[in-house]
Design a protein that fits this description.
Blueprint lengths: L23 H15 L6 E5 L4 H4 L4 H10 L20 H7 L6 H13 L3 E4 L4 E4 L4 E2 L8 E5 H7 L5 H10 L27 H8 L3 H7 L4 E2 L2 E2 L1 E4 L7 E4 L4 E2 L7 H6 L7
Helix pairs in contact: 3-7, 8-9
Length: 270
């Protein structure tokens, strides 16, 4: 194995002990992360396994899906164990606190018991820990195309601003996010852009198990951290189509294309 050293080319002095050597790719990654921090973007995310989420929302109410969406922001790299910001394991009391259900214990336990009964949350009585089943949500690297990323900082902030049922609506949409376009569609793994089967409002409502009028009322004004979550696209006289904001939910490891970013660049005009 070749050992890389830092050497003064004029004197031949070995300066390795005084310098840290990094590959150029590491520098680029560091600068990208620094830019995100400087611009106020926290890129920390959790991953959701798209093909399994129907198992969750088939047994949880829409509001309970919203509770789970927030709770999964607290999963650790250690087997999905729920952890506080100080890295200590979450207790049920901590969960109630972050879900703002301290004064609604029955609501919390209805949610918690449904999750435990269906293997969504796993309780380790010996260790005194609680974990979100990694079959559904996890944190860490992945090479699986059937995964959608959720940016945790935005979800944590928005939980203070909108109803859990609204976040639950979004949760139910995660299995239908298209890889290249962030479109909400019936075939999210389709590679040919001309073959994408976009949902209209009725089809999207049927897919996620809610009333079309509910989507009509809630989606247009739904924002996460000041940004619209879903764009409605109108093409001629065709029904509306929908696409997710990539700064909230996204599937790729590269930056969204300029068109997708511009679509959500909406500012108030005076």
């Amino acid at each position: 194995m070749t050992k890389i050293r830092a050497v003064n080319i004029e004197t031949g002095e070995d300066l390795t002990k005084d310098y840290t050597l990094r590959h150029r790719n590491q520098d680029e990654a560091y600068h990208r992360k620094s830019k995100d921090v400087a611009e106020g973007r926290n890129r920390d995310f959790t991953a959701s396994t798209m093909r399994n989420l129907h198992e969750v929302y088939s047994v949880l109410t829409t509001a309970q899906c919203g509770y789970l969406m927030l709770l999964q922001c607290y999963v650790s790299y250690d087997g999905g164990v729920l952890s506080n910001p100080d890295k200590s394991p979450m207790t049920k009391a901590h969960m109630k606190g972050v879900l703002q259900l301290d004064k609604k214990p029955r609501t919390f336990y209805d949610f918690y018991n449904a999750c435990v009964a269906n293997g969504i949350i796993i309780e380790d009585q010996n260790a005194g820990t609680y974990a979100v089943n990694e079959r559904y949500h996890f944190r860490g690297a992945f090479d699986n195309q059937f995964v959608v990323k959720s940016y945790t900082a935005k979800i944590k902030r928005v939980y203070r601003e909108v109803k859990a049922a609204d976040i639950g609506l979004i949760y139910r949409m995660l299995p239908f996010v298209h890889m290249e376009t962030n479109a909400l569609c019936d075939n999210p793994f389709e590679k040919n852009p001309k073959a994408i089967s976009w949902f209209n409002r009725k089809e999207l409502a049927e897919a996620i198990g809610v009333n079309p009028d509910t989507l009509g009322r809630r989606l247009p004004g739904m924002k996460f951290d000041g940004e619209y979550v879903v764009a409605r696209i109108k093409v001629g006289n065709e029904p509306d189509r929908y696409t997710f904001n990539p700064s909230v939910f996204y599937r790729q490891n590269k930056a969204p294309d300029n068109t997708l970013q511009a679509m959500f660049n909406v500012k108030n005009r005076k």
